[in-house]
Amino acid sequence: MLVKNSDVWYSEYHSEDDVKLSFKIDEVLHTEQSPFQEIQIFKNETFGNFMVLDGYVQVTEKDEFVYHDMITHPAMAVNPDVKRVLIIGGGDGGTAREISRYPSIEKIDMVEIDGAVVAACEKYLPTMSSVYAKEPRLNLMILDGLKFVAEAPDASYDLILVDSTDPAGPGEGLFTVEFYRNCHRILSKDGILINQHEGAFYDGDIEEMMKAHAKIRKVFPVARVYGFNTPTYASGYWYFGFASKTYDPILDLKADAWNGLGLKTRYYNTDLHKGAFALPNYVKEILASVQV
Ligand code: SAM
C-alpha cells in the first residue's frame, strides 16, 4: 500500500520510553500476524525495504551487510576448515547468503521457526533471500531451533550461527542454558557458536546481554563478545557472542588464510576483527560483573 499525501512514520523505542528511532514510510509492503509473531515490511527512502518483527527492526536493505558480515566471517577467519554449518533463525536469508560464499563448506542446515518470514522475505528482501533458490548446499527446515538442537546427533556441526530475534516470544528458548548445552553437545570438538548477543547501552538490552553471557559461560570454556555498528539497532552498536570449545578468537585468528580466500566484504576485515573484540571499558565492566 503506497502512502500518499500523508506523513506515516514507523518508530521503535530504543530506551524504555523516551528515545526512539523513526522511519518515514513510503510504502507498507507487507503486514501479517503469523502463528509466532507480527511481520511487517516497509519501504523507506534511505534504508530501502526493512522488516520489523513484533515491533523490532530486524533487517534493512541499507545496513544488513554489517550484521551479516559480522555473524559469519569472524568465525570463518578463526577456523577456515569449517565444513558443517547450522544456522538457527536467519529467516531473511542474509546469514545463509554470506556463509554460502565459502566453497569449502559442505553442508548448510538452516532451522527457521516461521515459514511466513521466509515467504515475505523471498518477496520483499531478494538481496538476502535469493540464496534460497540458488544454494544447493542449503537445507532449510521450518522448525523450532530449541527442539532441533535437542534432537540433533552429537558432534554433527563445526559452526552454529544463532541469528535470532530478541529473548522474547519465539526467540526466548534460544537464550536458555538448555539450548546452549545442546549446542555444545552437537558441536565438534573444536566447534564454535556465534549468537545474537544483544546491546550494552540501554538498560533493557544490558540485562539481556548479561543473562545470556552468564548462561554461555556456564557451558563453553571460551565465551567472548564482539561488537559492530548497525545504525538501525538500539544505540547503533550491537554485539555477537563468540563461544567455543578450543579456539580463542584473537590468538587463533588465521588472517593470512582468510585473506587468501579473496572474499570481498563491505564491513569485515581481519584488522577490524581484532578491534571488534577490543571492548570499551564500560562493556568490559558489564561483562566482568556477570555472576556465572
Ligand atoms: N538480525 C535480527 C536481529 O538481530 O534481531 C535477526 C534477524 S532474523 C529475521 C531472526 C529470525 O529468528 C526470525 O526470522 C525468527 O522467526 C527466527 N526465530 C525466532 N525464534 C526462533 C526459534 N525458536 N527457532 C528458529 N528460529 C527462530
How is the topology of this model organized?
Blueprint: E1 9-13, E2 20-24, E3 27-33, E4 38-44, E5 48-53, E6 56-60, H1 64-78, E7 84-89, H2 94-99, E8 107-112, H3 115-124, H4 126-129, H5 131-134, E9 138-142, H6 145-151, E10 157-163, H7 177-186, E11 187-196, H8 203-219, E12 222-229, E13 237-244, H9 255-260, H10 270-277, H11 281-288
Parallel strand pairs: 7-8, 7-10, 8-9, 10-11
Antiparallel strand pairs: 1-2, 3-4, 4-5, 5-6, 11-13, 12-13
Helix pairs in contact: 7-8
The structure holds S-adenosylmethionine.
S-adenosylmethionine binds at residues 58-59, 67, 88-92, 111-114, 117, 144-146, 163-165, 170-171, 173-174, 196.
Report on the structure:
With 292 residues, this protein is α/β, with parallel strands linked by helices. The protein contains eleven helices and 13 strands. Helix 7 crosses helix 8. Bound molecules: S-adenosylmethionine.
